[in-house]
Amino acid sequence: MPREPKKQEVEKEENIEKAEEIVEEKSKVVVPEGWEPKTMLGKKVFSGEISDIAEVFAKGIKIAEPPIADVLLPNLEREIILIGGSTGKGGGIRRTPFKRTSRMHKSGRRYSISTMVVVGNKNGYVGLGLASGPPGKHQEVIEKATNKAKLNIIPVKRGCGSWECSCGANHSIPFSVKGKVGSIIVELLPAPKGIGLCVSDEVKKLMRLAGISDIWCKTRGSTHMRVNLIKATFNALNKLNTYKTKSEFEKEVGMTIGKVE
Description:
alpha+beta, Ribosomal Protein S5, domain 2, 5-stranded antiparallel beta sheet, 4-stranded mixed beta sheet, 8 helices, 13 strands, 33% helix
């Protein structure tokens, strides 16, 4: 007579099958329609071998295809920075998403437009892109800048480095840092919870998409140049990743890198 399996063994097998089904569901990735990966990273993401963007940065692999960011960060959001402007009747400037420039040619003046886009998941990942193109093709220029921003995504170190708070949450940055582009120097300082984003309106877009809710900022130089101002702020956030910190300090300020579940 064959031995009948015990109730515990049956339950164990059922639990194993359920666990395998859950793993299979998590490994499934939603791939953009019509995407044919060309890089090794793209092929691994397409096949589901890599499903976490943290693994990409841990291995030091550069993102070379925009759909990779769409797959690994499905909740990615976009903001357009108002870098242009047109003069009004009263002498003021009405801010616009596009900056118009011209150059002299033997046939006359030739114009081009440029725009800046920020992408992020509001949870530790942010990217910045700047693109230009011919006038009249505004949507194409925006898409071009968006794709560049997806290729420039970086993880953001967050924490509570303010001595006025010390709550250990990831609402600010763990320590002060400076970024410089051209004549503009941006210094980001940790702020206590509830202060908010004490920065300009365009820098707020970058901070929100990075997942930072409280911060102080000091600026020097020609800050009316919005392109360089945003670039300097982005460089400051990226500079956070270059510093080495002790484990005791990381626990004290509650420092996290990238996405927090």
